[in-house]
Amino acid sequence: MAEIALSNLRKVYPNGYVGVAGASLTINDGEFAVIVGPSGSGKTTLLRMVAGLEDITSGEMSIGGTLVNDVSPKDRDIAMVFQNYALYPHMSIYENMAFGLRLRGIPKPEIDRRVSEAAQFLQLADRLENKPKQLSGGQRQRVAVGRAIVRKPKVFLFDEPLSNLDAKLRVEMRVELARLHRRIDATILYVTHDQVEAMTLATRIIVMKDGHIQQVGAPLELYSRPTNRFVAGFIGSPAMNFFDSTVEQAENHIFVKGPGFKIRLTPEQTESLKKRGMIGKGVTFGIRPEHIHDRLFLPDAPADQTFVASVDVVEPMGAETYAYVRLGETMIVVRLRGDALPKVGSQIDLVCDMSRSHLFDKETGAALA
Fold first, then answer.
1. Average pLDDT estimate for 94-114
2. Distance in angstroms (rounded) separating the CA atoms of residues 255 and 262
3. Which residues contact 309 (CB under 8 A, 6 or more apart)?
4. Which of 108, 249, 269, 369 is surrounded by the most beta carbons within 10 Å?
5. In this structure, what are the phi and psi dihedrals at residue 77, rounded to the nearest 5 degrees?
């Protein structure tokens, strides 16, 4: 078993700065868990605590059912892949991958077998005699991954391993890491600031902010049911649009009124807001760019779920078009069909898919409906 269990884990530095504020969660055996968050959120600090590179101020951590608070990094049976590869430049690729095994006294035939298997899988079999400087950035990152694989540890830790690669290589390495997880069925804890990496790689995502865990869940759960405004804005690209709004009642319907729009809420949203006594109060209305559509393509859309905006910038992407539109002083982004190319400066009729919209408490940011 390679389950990682954290119980009220805290890291407080001597100057009083709280790096991690009471993290409690369980990463299951064989899971690919990804920690995301902005700079300073505590994600790397938490990873380094799991690795044993940061002391634990309070709380407990176990790996495979064994308490490891006071266990040294070398005895935790983990392997870590760093952002900067950390390869020995004077050693060949084979020697880089075999070095840790030699230190552990593994017999040479077993070292040869493990390095050969990893090199074949990572498409490095023909580069084992090369030095790191003779490899591309993507190949060097694969060597760093291979050095971890040959260890056959209980847990793999990745600290933003793709941030130094260009866009094309990042996509390729994401595919390789997903394939690696399926093949070795290991427990992986992965840190990134890139929510696209998190969405495509993770079985579960851990969202952090200011040392606190905001939400833990499957990628689509966080996308569809964010627990607060921060998670809603962090997950998804382009980011969710937010409006300062007011909940109003007219006749038998409840509306959300914001800058340049007044849109009818769904029955489920109406019931939730009535129970909370939110009629007449301020809320934050959120809707993703992909859930706002050009009414030209939806002529039967309800009139009370539409609004008119002024087109400011148009970005044709081929399969889709991003339109930056204004409602008064508010700028939002809308993801339209690829063949929808509104003219800059024109007025565009837009319709909201209210079943995919979100409402948040204006003060706390907590999800309301």
1. 92
2. 6
3. 260, 325, 326, 327, 332, 334, 347, 348, 350
4. 269
5. 55, 55
Q: What is the sign, positive or negative, of the torsion defined by CA atoms of 220, 225, 230, 232?
A: positive
Most confident of 77-81, 149-153, 199-203, 337-341: 199-203
Which token pair is 331? 């700028």
Q: Over the chain, what is the mean pLDDT?
A: 91
d(CA 16, CA 338): 51
Q: Phi-psi category of 64—alpha, beta or left, where left has phi over 0 and alpha has psi -120 to 50?
A: left
Read off the pLDDT of each residue in 36-57 and give the average, rounded to a whole number.
94
Pairing of the two strands 241-250 and 320-327: unpaired
| Spatial separation of the C-alpha atoms in residues 88 and 171, rounded to whole Å | 26
Burial 62-78 (b: 16+ CB within 10 A, else e): bbbeeebeeeeeeebbb
Closest CA to 6 of 118, 125, 155: 155
pLDDT at 258 over 70: yes
* pLDDT, position 1: 58
If pLDDT is split at 50, 70 and 90, which confidence band does 333 have? very high
Determine the Cα–Cα distance for residues 16 and 224; give it in Å rounded to an integer.
36
Please provide the size of the chain in residues. Answer: 369
H-state helical runs in the chain: 43-51, 93-103, 108-121, 137-149, 167-184, 195-201, 219-224, 229-234, 267-275
CA nearest to 164, candidates 144, 147, 141, 143: 141
- Give me the mean pLDDT over the 207-229 stretch: 96
Task: Count how many Cα atoms sit within 13 Å of the Cα of residue 23 in the half-sphere of its side chain.
Answer: 36
Q: Quick: pLDDT tens for 353-368.
A: 999 999 999 999 999 9
